[in-house]
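User: structure tokens for this one?
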Amino acid sequence: MKRADLPALSIFATVARHGSFRGAARAEGISVSAISHAVRGLEESLGFRLLDRTTRSVAPTEAGRRLLEGLAPALASITDAVELAGEAGHQLTGTIRLSVPRSAAELVLLPLTLAFTRHHPGAAVDILVEDGLTDIVAGGFDAGVRFDESLEQDMIAVPIGPRQRAAVVGSPAYFETHPIPTTPHDLSDHVGIRRRFAGGALYDWEFEKDGMAMAVAMQGPITLNDDRLIIDAALAGAGLAYAFEGQVLESIGSGALLRVLEDWCEPFSGFFLYYPSRKLMRPVMRAFIDCIRSLPR
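Assistant:
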């Protein structure tokens, strides 16, 4: 590989991250033709194709994916070193890229991000909302958010925000034709709005009381993969919904939703920000983590 290929490697990673030459051009601040020329020149220099191109999309080839896996840590280390060198100027700058599930984005991360960027006007936070388990290193992310049971062992994890709690809710119209459940066993007589994970599995509703835990596989005609849609379906009377307490408190307070089985929904550890261990950490990322650590639990 030629030394002149180094800038093109960064451009290739940007194209793969955005899934388009146009998106990469906006991110790099150069023309689409310059992006295309750089990638084409890199492919010719390496002797193999890096991207599959169609009229609608751009995606890495198998060789391109393998290259990206190796490039991500190296490019991150270069960015870290450059920003560390500029730390002497005492101006916190740079963009933090995060992969975050929708529930965490709504409940804890968006308020934190607004406060962080107001306090550090030179910093930027780029949040990609996705509910699947993303490889943050291969995806070029600085960090991600998950529950503790989903964390990878080689990652550093920091608790973010308060402990969370689930809520089972239904509309007043729904309860006009269905009895109030008093234990999770009663849910066999109810209609559930089911949730499907990004990987395809259905979520079993989890309950705990006095040290006894149980999971219920709900039945119902509607299955969704988005928290907001699940709550909207409950508001429309389609069945019971299992949601984060913070997402439905306003509807409970207004009477639009009625809460049941509250004594079976105990608090749990909540969300964690996780990131790979690096000897060098960019000042903007370190400041973001310090902001998280300062939050009350």
